[in-house]
């Protein structure tokens, strides 16, 4: 129990680190999209199982799995009755942002590509949006204006392209 408490304390310190690259709310938006997206994905996956097309039934089953996995990765407290969920949560928290971006992006886009219906777009779309937010976080902050101007091509400089006033 002590190891779990110290792991949670380390996670809390990492989430509220003032030296982090992103504000706290960006990380919470990504987590929130993953959690809400997981529940929405499960809801629309269950509704989508009432279909006659086998491809759509398969897509909805994948969407259900993606929703459950999304909740397990982003909100492990919702699945504490599963004995291995703590290890899954520690594994998830140790991943880089681009790992999460690829995982959530792939989990979100596959059911949409298999069966383009409102159920799959609404359900898996939120998981895909979570992957997009993690992708933006993996790209990092935009540089300031001076750094961008210094790194740009001199042909695009405002001083070069200005017409003379004479």
From TrEMBL:
Any one Gene Ontology BP term: vesicle-mediated transport
Principal location listed in the UniProt entry: membrane
InterPro entries: TVP18/Ca-channel_flower
Cellular location(s): Cytoplasmic vesicle, Secretory vesicle, Synaptic vesicle membrane; Presynaptic cell membrane
One GO cellular component term noted in the UniProt record for this chain: presynaptic membrane
Bilayer-crossing regions: 28-51, 57-85, 97-114, 120-139
Record keywords: Calcium, Calcium channel, Calcium transport, Cell projection, Cytoplasmic vesicle, Ion channel, Ion transport, Membrane, Transmembrane, Transmembrane helix, Transport
Family: Belongs to the calcium channel flower family.
Record protein name field: Calcium channel flower
Provenance organism: Pristionchus entomophagus
């Amino acid at each position: 129990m002590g190891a779990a408490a110290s792991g949670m304390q380390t996670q809390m310190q990492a989430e509220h680190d003032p030296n982090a690259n992103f504000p706290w709310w960006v990380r919470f938006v990504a987590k929130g999209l993953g959690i809400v997206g997981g529940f929405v994905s499960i809801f629309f996956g269950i509704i989508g199982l009432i279909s006659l097309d086998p491809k759509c039934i398969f897509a909805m089953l994948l969407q259900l799995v993606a929703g459950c996995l999304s909740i397990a990765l982003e909100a492990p407290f919702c699945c504490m009755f599963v004995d291995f969920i703590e290890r899954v949560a520690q594994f998830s928290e140790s991943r880089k942002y681009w790992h999460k971006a690829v995982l959530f992006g792939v989990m979100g886009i596959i059911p949409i590509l298999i069966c383009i219906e409102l159920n799959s777009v609404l359900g898996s779309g939120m998981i895909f949006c979570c992957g997009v937010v993690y992708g933006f976080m993996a790209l990092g902050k935009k540089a300031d204006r001076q750094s961008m101007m210094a790194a740009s091509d001199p042909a695009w400089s405002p001083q070069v392209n200005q017409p003379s006033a004479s």
